[in-house]
Amino acid sequence: MTVSVQNAPVRAVVMKHKSYPYRLLQKIFAWIFYNLIVTTKRSVELTRAAGQKWGAIQQNGRPPAVGRKALTKPLFRTVRTVDFQAVFWLLTLLAVASTLMLWSSVSTIYGVEQDGGGYRLSDWLNRLRRSIDLAYDPNQRVSIRSQDIRYGETDEICEENDFAGSDGNVTLYMNWTELYHAEEEILRTSTSFVRKHLHTDNVLVRSIYADAAHGGRRPERKQPHRTVSDALSEGILIDDYYYVSGGHWIPAKCHPRWKVAIIVPFRDRFYQLPIFLRNIVPFLKRQKLEFGIYVIEQANGLDFNRAMLMNVGFQQALNFSRWDCFIFHDVDHLPLNNANYYGCSHMPRHFISGADRWNYKLQYSFFFGAVTGFTRSQIQKFNGFPNAYWGWGGEDDDILIRIQAHGFFKTRPWGVTGFYNVIAEHHKSAPKNKKRVCLLDYAHERLESDGLSNLVYPPARVTLTPLYTNISVNITKLALNPTWTVCTRDYKRAKKDELVNWKMN
Fold first, then answer.
1. Vertex 376, ends 479 and 321: CA angle to 5°?
2. Is 377 helix (H, G, I), strand (E, B) or coil?
3. What stretch or stretches form a coiled coil here (predicted)?
4. Residues 375 and 324 sit within 8 Å (Cβ to Cβ)
């Protein structure tokens, strides 16, 4: 689905709120309004009385009679009276401040942060706040639904980079950094503005996901059905790119040749993630691609299942935009050359010709891991990726079996163009998959029955951050198909057979 943004005028929203929080707020606002009226009326009366008293003193030299008794004591000092007008404005200021504080916290207390959008009051306040923000600073966030706004008024196609050999070498920043420092380095002066709008955008996206988890639009909600692309429909201009919340970047002055989703299978790699983002975002922007970064996090303690997370990432990324291709990227690998083009041509593609950990060589000639790319139609044709590999190893070779079984042939850059550096490990490596050899031997049995076709997982939790979209999912082992060969334990092949020719007979 195509990412789009709506820049419509503010619409009047009339809703019948029946929730307790709304009634409480209504009483608070009514009490404040009543006291302001009473205070104003009392201030006028006292001011009028004080004026009459002061006029009598100026005329007669003594205060007027009060009731049956007259005040004959001379005034030796100035009578101090309360400035009710100042009190009135002070109370008004306090009321406004309290309202703004309540406004900023109502979503957290009663809204989508806890229940995914069940309270209409929270939705209404956030839509109103969003409209006021846009009215206050309309030149910052713009609609990207318009093709002229999104890609510029010219029909120019973004040029591919023209780096050759070592001329395209990238300067990598491999030192550890905090994530917020990486955000500030990339977003620069727009950092605070981006962070300001993230909360509202997260509320909208989670509301949509909550509706989907309930089988579509909830019956008690009256607004029309929305999609994620409807919610994330405004961008801010940063340099030559429009930025959309969640790490989606769109060239502003030309039409991108490709729309690329970067899928990062992830768990507990918080040391590598800021370094990866700090380097990969400028790298992709130099290539004039439209791209989005999606970190697919395994939210449990089971053995890591990289290929299943790739399936989840493929499905979830399509909720945000209709991407042309998908690059599945290990979080610890950084490209060393700008000529290593991340566009969608020549796919299926293995982007690595060597890495520093292997002395800028490949582990073996059939290696097909770390950074790979496929078009949307290719992934759908070979049924995605295997879900059976829990633990380290095996899934890369299984994927190679799949693409060759469907008549695809991998491509790969040569020499320095495909060199990568690997970020040092600061985590416990995933345990090896003890069944990987057995699973590979019987991979052909599962080509059509294991992958996108049998993928099942609970609703994902989506969090938009300044540089990426985090999709956390609790994946579990799937039911065993009775047509599969059961691998209860691993076994060793003879050494000469360790690397087999996976081509189909």
1. 100
2. helix
3. none
4. yes
For 304-333, what is each residue's pLDDT tens digit?
A: 999 999 999 999 999 999 999 999 999 999
Residue found under tokens 């008004």 = 92
Contact 201, 464 (CB under 8 A): yes
410 vs 412: CA distance, rounded Å? 7
Please provide residue 433's backbone torsions phi and psi, each rounded to the nearest 5 degrees.
-80, 110
Q: What is the pTM of this model?
A: 0.71
Q: Which of 194, 175, 197 is nearest to 186 (CA)?
A: 194
In order, the DSSP letters of 35-99 are HHHHHHHHHHHHHHHHHHHHHHHHHHSSPPPBTTB---S---SPPP---HHHHHHHHHHHHHHHH
Could you tell me which residues are beta bridge partners of residue 472? 297, 461
Beta bridge partners of 328: 263, 372
Domain annotation for the chain: domains and CATH numbers: 165-180+258-497 (3.90.550.10)
Rounded to 10°, the helix 120-136/20-60 angle is: 60
Higher pLDDT, 252 or 86: 252
Burial (CB < 10 A; 0-12, 13-18, 19+), residue 351, is: buried
Each residue's pLDDT tens digit, 351-384: 999 999 999 999 888 999 999 999 999 999 999 9
What is the amino acid identity at position 162?
A: D
> What is the distance of C-alpha 431 from the center of its chain?
30
- CB crowding 153-164: b at 16 or more within 10 Å, else e: eeeeebeebebe
Name the nearest CA neighbour of 89 among 49, 47, 40.
Answer: 40
pLDDT tens string 253-310:
888 999 999 999 999 999 999 999 999 999 999 999 999 999 999 999 999 999 999 9
Helix (H, G, I), strand (E, B) or coil at 139: coil
How many helices (H) and strands (E) the chain has is answered by 13, 14
Instruction: Check if the beta carbon of residue 158 is closer than 8 Å to that of residue 241.
Output: no
Look at 313 and 498; give whichever has higher pLDDT: 313
